[in-house]
């Protein structure tokens, strides 16, 4: 850490304070904020994100006396702190315009204080103090390169300790790629065989749930999946099943029976059966998307199946389910939330929910994307129209492949 002090103005857009702190690595941070729980929470979230990033700076919370501070309130805060730390760096990016102006006027009264503005649009840290350049620090892109999904989620109030982040083994990713190729190019064969519906009915009850009893779960592990289908399966479906066997999702016996692979040591049987059944039914598309975003130069730290831990301390535990793919958009470090569907029954509701979920996880600058395999022409038109209105990117069929080459917008 640098032997310097960073003074910043707290706002609910926490990344404009997190990035300069990561670039400067100060030994001390003073968080000047408005009164009120919203800004107290934003200050806590900023501190939590920096701790998650490994920055163990001493952090002071400095609430001003008003919910809506004026110019003079923030100026007085600078006049209190800068005599104690005359070489401090003042980040003017956060707070209200009056707070920023007050901090600027207050800092100008002390020779030696440097000031910066975090310009996320141009990806720059801009010096605002003539004659007092910023100290040695990382540039914007280098600071952003150190971000992880856990850091950014912490900055938006989602404690990593309260969330589960999964990754997928390489054979599963290869299965996702093969499954996408088959399910798109041979979609008529899959539709005629009612493949997904048959798999869903085979492993789930009428209410769509995996059974809970050990005996029923064991029976599902030992059951021959081929018995779910009436008549001969078309070659594309057989190729799909062979790809699942190669990936270790299924196993094929010498008698030709196709069964679920046994659970790894220590894995809960119900969870294993549910994950395996999901992969056959449609979660293979999530693996496809996960592999694609891993290839994108504008994406970092992608995670699959992000969901809250079921803990009493987690406010999202009851109301927030699984999110298919969450990753970082470079170089700004904003979140991208991707929902993967082979088809969608209630498109408008799903798009609204997806936009809300992205904002909940990553703030108003988070990007929301829907990757959908199949949509009729009228539905595709509606999806794209609603997507534009709600701020959700909609990718249908082969358009999903663009995720590997998406730019930094």
What does this structure look like?
This protein has helices at 15-24, 37-52, 71-81, 97-108, 140-145, 149-155, 170-185, 187-192, 195-203, 214-222, 235-246, 269-295, 347-362, 377-390; strands at 2-9, 26-33, 58-63, 89-91, 114-119, 124-127, 163-166, 250-252, 258-260, 299-308, 323-329, 334-341, 367-372, 392-396. The protein contains 14 helices and 14 strands. Helix 3 (71-81) packs parallel to helix 4 and helix 7 packs across helix 12 (269-295). It is of the alpha/beta class and 409 residues long. Strands 3-2-1-4-5-6 form a 6-stranded mixed sheet, sandwiched between helices. A 6-stranded mixed sheet has the order 7-10-11-12-13-14. It has a two-stranded antiparallel ribbon with strand order 8-9. The longest helix is centred in the last third of the chain and has 27 residues, at 269-295.
What descriptors fit this protein?
six-stranded mixed β-sheet; 20% strand; alpha/beta; 409 residues; 14 strands; elongated; 14 helices
List the helices and strands and how they pair.
Blueprint: E1 2-9, H1 15-24, E2 26-33, H2 37-52, E3 58-63, H3 71-81, E4 89-91, H4 97-108, E5 114-119, E6 124-127, H5 140-145, H6 149-155, E7 163-166, H7 170-185, H8 187-192, H9 195-203, H10 214-222, H11 235-246, E8 250-252, E9 258-260, H12 269-295, E10 299-308, E11 323-329, E12 334-341, H13 347-362, E13 367-372, H14 377-390, E14 392-396
Parallel strand pairs: 1-2, 1-4, 2-3, 4-5, 12-13, 13-14
Antiparallel strand pairs: 5-6, 7-10, 8-9, 10-11, 11-12
Helix pairs in contact: 1-2, 2-6, 3-4, 7-11, 7-12, 9-12, 13-14
